[in-house]
Amino acid sequence: MSKFFSFLHRFNKGVELFKTVYKCGALELIKNGNELYFHKHYDRIIDLYEKRKIDNRILGTIVEYCKKIEKCDADWIETYLISKAVVDGPKIFKPRQLELEMCEHMKLNIEFNDYVQPFETVIIELPDDYIKTKRTRVVDGLNDPYYLKKNNGEHEPVFIIMNWNKKKEVIFTGLYFSSDTSIKSAFAFKQGTDEIEAYIEEKWNASNRQEARENFQFKGALYTSDDEWRVTEEVVRACLNYCLLLDEIGIKRVGAIDPSQYERLQRYQKVARKEKRTQEKIDLADERVREFPVVYEIKQRVRLVKIVQSLPREGNEEEEKRIIGPHRRRGHYRMQPYGPQSTLRKRIRIEPIFVNRHLFFGDDEQTQVIYE
């Protein structure tokens, strides 16, 4: 079973609470320069109660939860991350150990504006062979003697949630461990032209290790040991590079985590629409289908582009000029020369384009890009 799917089952009540807070717009992300904070609109939660969208019991639970974490931004970012992951539909990737180990040692020498994820929020489940190399001692936040005894007081990272907010120029990450604790981080860039690698070097390589942790974590977070923070650095770097790899190669849809359960939800959705049930039940059926976890992977298939015509080059009839049919070319990266006499190199992203658009005698709406 999916690691993230298991997490949702264990914390089902908490996840429903997060979703309610997020859907009513009670949580607003504000960015001022490179400073982040969450503005809470408690009045919108009251509006839900007055409109009978939530009952008195749920309202009391939400109010109690909000008071509990009022001054703990680390919990607010967890609310934001899990809500985005679930409400938008969980997109899960399961990379291999070799892919992550390779990405772990790659530098992120690109500007934030050139960073791209396949989706705004992705969940990356770490392979078992990889997480065995990342075991660390549990330092703070776990009051489960049975777990500590069974696992010799150690835990390892299991999955990571990554949210890419291009408009706010922020990347949020939440690394979840087998002990059900998590380490949340935020990359808040002053401007889109900031280089990610330079930002990481400035923050993570601070001479004071505690200062580096405070640069990335919100107030109220659990204490993080040097080993836990080192593991977080390695996994976050690997997953950021893995997202760039997905954008470079492409992705395809594998299918739902539990196909049989997903089919049952789809049948219920069709029945709800066919029998014209109440709008509330139809919305609930749509929501369950949309929020069911789906797995994606790297697209490995190679497609050949057919040459539809050959014309002689001007001034030399022996050479031929190839004319390629109209098609969409996916975004990719290249090393761009810059600096004194173009002696330096940096990685930039080339946006997707429509090749030979002038040969296509139709509207752009008639074209589409499909992730298989």
| SS class | alpha+beta
Computed Rg: 24 Å
Q: Count every helix, treating DSSP H or I runs of 4 or more residues as helices.
A: 13
Tally of discrete structural domains: 3
Q: Number of DSSP strands?
A: 17
User: Could you list the spans in which at least 5 consecutive residues all have pLDDT below 50?
Assistant: 304-308
Largest sheet: 7 strands, mixed
Percent in helix:
25-40%
Q: Order of SSEs, N→C?
A: HHEEHHHEHEHEHEEEEHHHEHHEEEEEEE
Overall average pLDDT: 76
Q: Which strands sit side by side, in order, in the main sheet? A: 9-8-7-4-3-11-10
Question: Shape from CA axes?
Answer: globular
Bin the strand percentage.
Answer: 25-35%
Task: Characterise this structure.
This protein has 372 residues and is an alpha+beta fold. It is 39% helix and 26% strand. The chain has helices spanning 3-10, 12-23, 42-50, 56-68, 73-87, 97-104, 128-131, 145-150, 196-204, 209-216, 226-249, 259-274, 279-290, and strands at 27-32, 35-40, 91-93, 121-125, 136-137, 154-155, 157-165, 170-177, 182-188, 251-256, 294-298, 307-313, 316-324, 327-329, 332-338, 344-350, 353-355. A seven-stranded mixed sheet has the order 9-8-7-4-3-11-10, sandwiched between helices. The longest helix has 24 residues, at 226-249.
